[in-house]
Each structure stands twice: as structure tokens, then as C-alpha cells.
Write a structure and sequence with these properties.
This protein has about 375 residues and is an alpha/beta fold. It folds into 2 domains: about 1-225 and about 330-380, Hypothetical protein af1432; about 225-325, no CATH class. Helices cover about 40% and strands about 10% of the residues. The chain has helices at about 1-15, 30, 55-70, 75-80, 95, 110-115, 120-125, 155-165, 180-185, 205-220, 225-245, 250-255, 255-270, 295-310, 360-370, and strands at about 190, 200, 285, 315, 325, 340-345, 350-355, 375-380. A hairpin with a 5-residue loop joins strand 1 and strand 2 (about 200).
Length: about 375
């Protein structure tokens, strides 16, 4: 399913793959991303059963294809392709590991230096007559990236596979399908936003409403304890593995997620007869309540076993004994896209936000913005 979906999906984003881009796909800094999932640790626990695996490599190509489709600008396209090279294994789980669940930007820190230290990249850029500073910061290209809740190539891309792949304890009322993705994508044009800056937007109100409904639904799920639990539970478990010298920080840039999981599986299997019967742990991750038990090898075994195999969470107004509990704020991911309202001015369509046009969508987004899962999500340590 994964390869077939990705191939068909990428063809929607741009029917012909740009010839000049092909040589960049072999860069070691980029191919490393094939082993890193877009869905942040949900591929490795029984709590989720995702429809397919979608890598950061796939995402990077998707972003580049969108940018090329709308701009036909080599520098912008390559910057989009390279925007995630510093992403470590398990993606934004590392942001949670570093205490940055609200902005989730820690993983971007090394992007520029990794690009600058890639001789293979410099060679490719030279062949295309480009300088490093034209491609090492995709934030400066508004079609590639912009601030929430605007629509950019990056945000547009990751919402499609997220909506199509996420499964398990949750599913969209109707997950993104390839035919729906195609109809949505073909409705997008470049507009002029309220700041007179280029931004992707929709030609029709109906398509904009459909897309915003889908993406707000995804964003709402990412605010709930199910997703927060998986990410924080894995983050805490991986931090334990580092403290106990089972893993090192460099492992997240050296090995694939599968290789790290296999290594941890072997550690746990080797110690499958360890006696945890008399061990009791209460462990809570939250900005307001934190009770830390002593770090130990037994604790790592207990946490890792539970993360891999748990199938349900319990919501509680307070932490539960014998459980791993989470109550924390996370980044609000949503889109309030533009909709064309007039003719082109200086080559860009006049447009307004969908919330200024559709009362139904305005209420949906207001509900999302006010949503607060103000209880603990707890998993019984087993």
C-alpha cells in the first residue's frame, strides 16, 4: 500500500518528476530520511495500526513537488526538498524529549549546518548554478513555508498523508483518499494574502470548506491524549535509554527507527526474565505535576514493554498509581486557508480567509482553538 500510494500521490502533486531534482535524491543527508517516519513514533506501538508507512524522505519529495508545481523555481524547490535533513529518528518525538511540545522546532536546529557540511550537495548546487544560501532556509520562501494558520507547501503536504495513514484507535470521518486529494489539489492557486504576500489558496468555497474540515479534524486529534501519550511515552522511554547508556544522542542521526527499535527489542528480550513484580512506579509528565521515580534499568524495561504493547488509555482528573500519565500542551496544527474573491492583481488572486466567508468553518476552527484536553491520559504499566 505504501509504495503504491506514495507513487500515485506524488504524481498528483506534479505529474512529471523534475529531471534536475533527481540527482539530489541520492544525497546521504536526504536518503537518511527514508528510515524516519512522518508520524512520530506511532508506527512502533500496538496502540496504532497505521494504514501505511510514510517517511520524511517521502514528505520532503512531496514538498518539493508542490513548490515546483506552483513556482517552477529551482532554488525554492530544492530548499523545500532539504528542509527536513536535520530531523532525527522518530521526528518530533525528539522535540518532546527536549521539552518542546508547544513549538516543536528543536529538530530544525542543525539543518543549515548539515547542508553546509555536505560536499555532495555543494556539487549538485554548482551544477545547477545555485549557491548554498539560496536553498538553506526554506522559511524565506512563502510558498514553501509560512506561519500557522496560513497554507504552505510544507503544511499542505504533511496533512494529506497524515489524514490517509493515521489509523488505530482513531480515524477521520472520512480519511483523505487519492481522488479527494486530487480534487482538492487541483483547486489550489497562488493568492495574495492580507499582508500582500504570496500564499496558496482555493478557487472555490466548497473545496476550501472540505479541506479545512479534514485538516481541523486531524489537528484536533493531535491535541488529544491518544497522540500525546504515544509521543511523550516514547520520548520519556528514549531519554531513559540514553541515561542508561543503551542509546546515545548520535544514534538518532545514525540509525533508522527500525534499527533503533530492533536494538531496544533485543535488550528487552535478553532481559525477558527480569523480575518486575515488586517494582512500583508512578510517573507523570506534565508542566504542572511531576513526580519522578528513580531511573533504573528495570524502569526502562517496564516503560518500553508497555509502550510497544499497550492498547488503551484511561482518562482521569488526576494521575493514577501504577500508570504512566500525561497532561501537557502541544502545538496547535491547523489551517485557515484563503479563498479567491476577486480577479488577479499583479498576477495574484484577491482572496479572503475561509473563516471570513464560511460560518460553519469559523465555528469549527473556534472549537479547535478553544479545545483543551484538561485531564490526564494514563496507561497502565504492564
Amino acid at each position: 500500500m505504501s509504495k503504491k500510494f506514495v507513487k500515485q500521490y506524488h504524481k498528483i502533486l506534479n505529474h512529471e518528476f523534475p529531471e534536475f531534482l533527481k540527482k539530489y535524491l541520492h544525497l546521504p543527508i536526504l536518503t537518511r530520511l527514508k528510515g524516519i517516519g512522518l508520524l512520530c513514533g506511532t508506527d512502533w506501538t500496538d496502540f496504532f495500526s497505521n494504514n501505511f508507512y510514510y517517511s520524511r524522505f517521502d514528505h520532503s519529495i512531496g514538498v518539493a513537488l508542490i513548490i515546483w508545481h506552483f513556482t517552477h523555481d529551482k532554488a525554492q524547490t530544492i530548499s523545500g526538498l532539504l528542509h527536513d535533513v536535520s530531523t532525527p529518528a522518530f521526528s518530533h518525538v525528539t522535540d518532546f524529549r527536549k521539552g518542546d511540545s508547544l513549538t516543536q522546532t528543536v529538530t530544525e536546529g542543525e539543518n543549515k549546518s548539515m547542508l553546509a557540511n555536505s560536499p555532495e550537495l555543494i556539487k549538485c548546487l554548482s551544477e545547477d548554478g545555485l549557491a548554498l544560501n539560496q536553498v538553506d532556509d526554506y522559511h524565506k520562501y512563502p510558498i514553501a513555508d509560512n506561519e500557522v494558520p496560513q497554507l504552505s507547501a510544507d503544511r499542505l503536504e504533511y496533512m494529506f498523508p497524515s489524514g490517509a495513514a493515521l489509523a488505530g484507535t482513531w480515524s477521520l470521518d472520512k480519511s483523505f483518499s487519492l481522488s479527494e486529494i486530487k480534487s482538492i489539489y487541483n483547486d489550489i492557486v497562488i493568492c495574495k494574502n492580507e499582508n500582500n504576500i504570496e500564499e496558496l489558496g482555493f478557487k472555490s468555497v466548497e473545496i476550501a470548506e472540505l479541506y479545512t474540515h479534514r485538516t481541523t479534524d486531524i489537528g484536533l486529534f493531535l491535541q488529544k491524549n491518544e497522540d500525546k501519550m504515544v509521543m511523550q511515552f516514547l520520548a520519556t522511554t528514549l531519554n531513559l535509554a540514553i541515561k542508561l547508556n543503551i542509546l546515545s544522542e548520535t544514534d538518532f542521526f545514525t540509525f533508522t527507527e527500525k534499527e533503533i527499535i530492533q536494538k531496544l527489542d533485543k535488550v528487552v528480550q535478553k532481559n525477558k526474565n527480569i523480575n518486575l513484580a515488586n517494582k512500583f512506579y508512578e510517573f507523570v509528565d506534565t508542566s504542572t505535576h511531576y513526580k519522578k521515580s528513580e531511573d533504573s534499568f528495570e524502569k526502562f524495561i517496564l516503560f518500553y514493554r508497555t509502550y510497544r504493547k499497550f492498547r488503551k488509555i484511561t482518562r482521569s482528573p488526576e494521575p493514577l498509581k501504577g500508570h504512566f500519565c500525561v497532561n501537557l500542551g502541544v502545538k496547535k496544527r491547523y489551517i485557515n486557508p484563503l479563498v479567491v474573491t476577486g480577479n488577479k492583481i499583479d498576477g495574484l488572486f484577491e482572496a479572503k480567509r475561509i473563516t471570513d466567508i464560511s460560518e460553519k468553518i469559523r465555528q469549527e476552527i473556534n472549537y479547535f482553538l478553544s479545545y483543551d484536553e484538561n485531564c490526564f491520559g494514563c496507561v497502565k504499566l504492564n
